[in-house]
Amino acid sequence: MTFDVYNSIIVADSMSSAVEASMYNSIQAILRQAASSCNKGMLRWTLHKKVETHPSNSVSLVRVLVKELEKVERLDYKMHVIPLLHTLNYVIIQSSHIPCNLFQRVYECFKRLLTLPEPYCTITLRYMRSIKMEQITPGALYQRRVIAEQSLRNKHFPQQERVFVFADPAVFSGSLWQAVRADLVLAGPQSDTLARWVLLHTLQAGLGKACHGPILTQALEDLGEDVEKYFQEVVLAVEQSIENGEAGRDQHKTRLQHIYSDILTSANQDPKARGSLSNTPLPSPEIHFHLWTNEEELWNELVNFTLNISTSERNSMYQEEEEEDVSKRVSLLSVDSGIEKDLSDMEEREQRNPLTRSRSPCFRGRMKPEDKMALVQENIKGPTCSTPLPKEEGNLTARIVMMGDDRVLGRLAKVYHSIRKREAKHLILTKRVNLQIYYIPVTDEPIVNSPESTSQVGDRLSLASFLGRVDPWYESNINSLGAMIPKLARTQSRHSRSSEPNHFLVDVLSYYLRCGLQPVHFTLYSVKISVSGQTGSPVNEVFVSHLDAEFPEFKTLRENLKQERSSLRRTRKTLGTCGAVVSMNYTKVSLSKQEVVQGMSVMTCGVVISAISPNETEGLDSLTVHFDSTNPRCCTEIRTQNIKIRILEDKTFTVCLDKDCRRKYTHVQSIEISPCLDPGYCLQTSSKFSVGEEREAGLSKYMCKILPLPINTFTGINH
Length: 719
Prior knowledge:
Elements: H1 3-31, H2 37-53, H3 57-75, H4 81-94, H5 100-113, H6 120-136, H7 140-150, E1 160-167, H8 174-184, H9 191-207, H10 213-223, H11 227-244, H12 249-266, E2 287-291, H13 296-307, H14 311-316, H15 320-333, H16 340-352, H17 355-358, H18 369-381, E3 396-404, H19 406-425, H20 429-432, E4 433-441, H21 451-460, H22 462-470, H23 472-479, H24 481-494, H25 504-515, E5 518-523, E6 525-531, E7 539-543, E8 546-550, H26 552-564, H27 568-573, E9 580-588, E10 596-604, E11 606-610, E12 623-628, E13 636-647, E14 653-657, E15 660-675, H28 679-686, H29 694-697, E16 708-713
Parallel strand pairs: 1-2, 1-3, 3-4
Antiparallel strand pairs: 5-16, 6-7, 6-15, 8-11, 8-14, 9-10, 9-13, 11-12, 12-13, 13-15, 14-15
Helix pairs in contact: 1-2, 1-3, 2-4, 2-23, 3-4, 3-5, 4-6, 5-6, 7-9, 8-24, 9-10, 9-11, 10-12, 11-12, 13-18, 19-28, 22-23
């Protein structure tokens, strides 16, 4: 070994040690308990940006993270497991190349972490499988992620994802909506650029030092449209390697080497070039942003996604030749047309040309819901009902992101129940689409850290507060956005519109979508509302967090008494008018889980029913019902799952669901609340089966009886 070579090794080791020291300090700052939640989220984002800008730092960061996980294992610091696991997995997706021995060390560390309790072992197991796949087929996580999120066309990996962000107009004013939309809906790279990034990342990850990143980058640029051929080859190679497992590792590397040599030769470059690695950014997913004014919009987007028809495609791909075919097809979808000849003629033409049915028509106009559902069903079933589902079944993932406060989740609960009800009768979307729900809390009220303000603002963010208590990593990365998003909007409004968009929000959302896969299940409650003067069945509604019942006659008196902190003399004066008389029947919640039905009458000027417990250990399977009164001795609080409240006097009251004035009912005489049953369960138990189908009816006892609303977090709750 010459002196120059020895000296270069010493310099490289010292630089690596300096990078590791810097990474160690960053990790410690994130894990430090004294750091605020907002700072932790910003530090996490900064750390991943360092890796994206300097890909050579990824190996040092992986080493530091593994050391910290090993320390956690020895010292039993469970509170550090979740941040370290998510950070490590995300860095591995970003990394251009990680040595095999380091991969093995990560895998062995994960195996030991499987002995931890829930939810740590569940998250460890999920990432352990990903790490094993990446160890055998380097670059697979990045490639699959980009193909699915960007809907890159290929023949070998059919997964597609679509991100829909729905912002509540009650929170998002015009300026705030425009600012957030500008930050989220960014002009992404073209498909040929994405294909080059996938090729570059996969070849660098698989070949390591045998690949020259800068030369390969230039060669891919020079190929132009010919890059598509090599993209398809790499996708096929990766998918076959995943299928073959460990036995095909050497064959896969040889195959990548051939592709690498062919690319450089085609671009008139040295096919044996070796050198440093180049940066391959992990692009943010394509985001469809909506101001959620129409609740049906969510359902329509899911249907359009299932049909693989976007609004732009409907406008641009509509042609005169298809117009006649579409009109005939839509006429056939009408139940009462009665034209049998058209049906037979159409079936004969489709039998002669099977492509007629497999092609998805595009519509310029607005379709009726029943026509759209029939089209979805036709797209899935094929020519006959006995035809099996296509291979694409379950290959679509719709990631629904709700932005707002408790009110937006209340509206989502109503729509989610409606979707489940439709799917219980016609299982169509569920067969094709994997629905994932995310929540980013945003409030239109100023958040001030004072005892007077937290109760009012916390009232609108009770669901977000609960998620933050059960998942500190959600609190650090997502809840902190609630106050930050309005600030970002104000900052953007002060700058010119030509300024560069702020990537912080879209980066945090991308991180949440990719790592937040552990759901917290909120129980939905159905409420039957009987309105005075209304004939027929009561109104059926759904809520997820709150129900407020208020008696207008006592509203002003109640507010005045609270503000004045009424004296004993004042209290005595109002003892006779401390509220309206209501009767209630409810099932008392006990530790033994035995149902005890009780009934009583109380005088109250307001009822507050909350499904969110202030203590996360109490779970989400019961309601806290508080009967307020101007007389403190008349105030009552109970815990129950089922309750019926009826006013005994010639009065009515007002009901507001999930703090949303848009979901307010007046002149109410009674309400009946119970956990919302899953429509699929109801259909199984209520259907009449023939003798040959009695066994299938027994499936209902294996189904979930209560319908939950799953909100994805980083930790989840173990049931």
